[in-house]
Specification:
Layout lengths: L14 E5 L4 H12 L3 E6 L2 H10 L4 E4 L5 H15 L4 E4 L15 H28 L4 E7 L10 H23 L5 E7 L6 H10 L5 H4 L2 E4 L3
Helix pairs in contact: 1-6, 3-4, 4-5
The structure holds NADP nicotinamide-adenine-dinucleotide phosphate.
NADP nicotinamide-adenine-dinucleotide phosphate binds next to helix 1, strand 2, helix 4 and strand 5.
Length: 225
């Protein structure tokens, strides 16, 4: 058995893409990664909001991209490869909530919104960057899901179903990582609410580079206050 690979430098020197980087959580993750010495690539749909990332991580590179559009994501990947080379980490944070009103309230409009944000952007980014994560000697994928997947309610059925799909997709990516050797890991964080947990999430993301992939891959970690 080969020795598990852990870079003694942790995330320092690695290139990490944050997909959906302008929320409080995104900014916290960007600041923590940059503080730990990573090259941060931050993506959002709005240039002005991306300035929030630059305020906490001045050396970060920011990119505007509609991550729900696969053609835009593949163009983004080409740009990032030209400017920074392959990435070592993908932190997927695009989310959003729609729901309420019991089962009758689970509208198609809300489902389309959740599918686009929660599932489509994850499918697009993981497909576009899977080869990078496999080629890196410490590839990492992280998503933030919800504990509502474990205890779905009628009023949150659309949301919990979209999150369950995202978790399943992530485990499929992780299965591919495992089959390709023990260098890459896919990790699901699950929270009830991120409010106040953003620094904890940021620290957990940085720590993904402190443990061997085999110990992390396809784990689901519930973060509680
Ligand atoms: N907030 C919570 O309490 C909570 C609870 C459970 C799970 N989660 C999960 O935790 C993760 C982070 O949560 P969050 O509240 O920080 O997420 P969020 O605000 O819903 O999304 C993160 C960022 O994604 C960007 N974004 C949205 N659509 C995009 C698109 N098409 N292309 C590119 N960027 C796009 C948004 O920035 P721009 O609009 O500036 O582009 C936004 O700042 C999400 O997966 C969420 O579902 C959150």
């Amino acid at each position: 058995m080969p020795e598990p690979v852990v870079d003694p430098a942790g995330v320092a020197g690695h290139t990490v893409l944050i997909a959906g980087a302008t929320s409080t959580a995104g900014v916290a993750v960007a600041a923590a990664l940059a503080g730990a010495g990573a090259q941060v690539l931050a993506v959002g749909s709005d240039a002005e909001r991306l300035e929030r990332v630059i305020e906490v991580a001045p050396d970060a590179s920011v990119y505007v991209c509609d991550l729900a559009d696969y053609a835009q994501v593949t163009a983004l990947a080409a740009t990032l490869h030209a400017e920074h080379g392959p990435i070592d980490g993908l932190v997927h944070l695009v989310g959003g909530w729609r729901g309420g009103g019991g089962l009758d309230g689970q509208t198609d409009t809300d489902w389309d919104f959740l599918h686009e944000r929660v599932v489509q952007t994850l499918r697009n980014t993981t497909r576009a960057f899977n080869a990078d994560l496999l080629a890196s000697f410490t590839g990492r994928l992280a998503i933030v899901s919800s504990v509502s997947v474990d205890a779905p309610t009628p009023g949150g059925a659309n949301y919990a179903s979209a999150k369950a799909a995202a978790e399943t997709w992530t485990r499929a990516v992780g299965h591919g990582f495992a089959k390709s050797g023990d260098t890459a890991a896919a990790v699901i964080f699950a929270v009830r609410s991120l409010d106040g947990l953003e620094p904890r999430l940021a620290a957990e993301v940085v720590a993904l580079w402190d443990a061997p992939a085999a110990a992390l891959n396809n784990t689901r970690r519930i973060l509680t206050p």
